[in-house]
Amino acid sequence: MVGAGVVGMSTAAALVAAGEDVLVFESSDVVMGERSAGSSRIFRLAHTDPELVRYASRARTAFDGWSTRAGTPLLDPCGCVVSGTDAPDRARAMASAGAPHSFDLADGTLPTRSVEGPVLVDPSGGVLDVDGVRRLLSAEVGTVVHHERVTSIDEGTVSTPDGIYAADTVVVAAGADTPALALPVGIELPQALEHHVRFTFALPDDGPVPAWIDASPGRVSTYQHRTGPGRWSVGATLPSSLVSWENGQEAASVASERAVVEYATEHLTVDPAVLDRLYCTHAPDTGDGILFRRSGPVLAVYGENLMKFAPVLGETLAAAARDGSTPPDLG
Ligand SMILES: Cc1cc2nc3c(=O)[nH]c(=O)nc-3n(C[C@H](O)[C@H](O)[C@H](O)COP(=O)(O)OP(=O)(O)OC[C@H]3O[C@@H](n4cnc5c(N)ncnc54)[C@H](O)[C@@H]3O)c2cc1C
């Protein structure tokens, strides 16, 4: 296994539960510290593809299983609201997959002055406790994680500065580094990267609030949710000219902060002073879909927004690692 993000850790947990010998290589000192960093994420069934709605439904059930194992709820079932242009497409996909949904949003539900355009309410959505997920997976498979950087992968071998390791199967779940690591064995994945920053603001009222994906016409498109007591975090999808890889992290962070603070000032009821920032690399060409690629014993996975699928994605990868198959792409 290459990478101890949520995908690698979830896959390792499923493989260990199946009685397999597993070794996870992680280049940093911590687990779930790159794209899986931070305390929380949005969970939702609301996708534009019925297949992804069904996969997320399976993940919802699997998160209940993780909550039981953790002895604490890992999903706050506060729901998720989608507003704007693609809400009808998501509603159609949810209807086709038999997922519960509605179009009724009471005034004052969200910390905003107004919601524009069509609205979709996903009552199965909510906010994932990523700290809790990290604690659970570290307790279950932390001992099989080796903090060594993988320098190359060949057919059935993994090289690190400390040695060369042979394996029946090598699962590459190295997040942003997966395309470059998998390319030498003939696996091609989207290479493009952008910078992304999520910003946290103070939320005046601290009752339950649904997560929100706001693509209201005329606004920058955002996702936002409660990330702790009195805290509301907002990330925006910005034009690539503002967050391009070539312009660098600093320029992208400044441009992102300007755009998100402007959005918060104009549309939200939060205090628009930034309390916290969470940076990550973002793959602009993958959307909500998941790509699986295999070359002999090497199986690679790549996608965005994978936290919400993590428990079921780990099972999918573990099954494919054991039987030599390649899961079909999703979405
Ligand atoms: C700000 C932000 C908001 C998000 N919001 C949502 C959301 O609301 N809902 C949702 O579902 N998802 C969301 N996501 C996306 C989701 O968190 C990620 O898709 C998911 O965590 C990715 O997990 P991963 O295991 O694929 O990658 P990562 O967590 O990046 O793990 C890959 C690991 O591989 C390691 N690695 C890399 N190269 C090597 C190497 N050569 N050798 C050894 N180890 C290596 C890295 O150090 C890293 O730990 C968000 C992400 C961010 C950052």
Automatic annotation (TrEMBL):
Lineage, uppermost ranks: Bacteria, Bacillati, Actinomycetota, Actinomycetes, Pseudonocardiales
Gene Ontology MF terms: flavin adenine dinucleotide binding; sarcosine oxidase activity
Source taxon at top rank: Bacteria
InterPro entries the UniProt entry points to: FAD-dep_OxRdtase, FAD/NAD-bd_sf, MTOX
Keywords: FAD, Flavoprotein, Oxidoreductase
Oxidoreductase recorded as keyword: yes
Iron-sulfur is among the record's keywords: no
Gene3D superfamilies: D-Amino Acid Oxidase, subunit A, domain 2 (3.30.9.10), FAD/NAD(P)-binding domain (3.50.50.60)
Start and end residues of each FAD dependent oxidoreductase domain: 2-319
Family annotation (SUPFAM superfamilies): FAD/NAD(P)-binding domain
Organism encoding this protein: Pseudonocardia endophytica
UniProt name for this protein: Sarcosine oxidase
Cofactor requirements of the protein: FAD
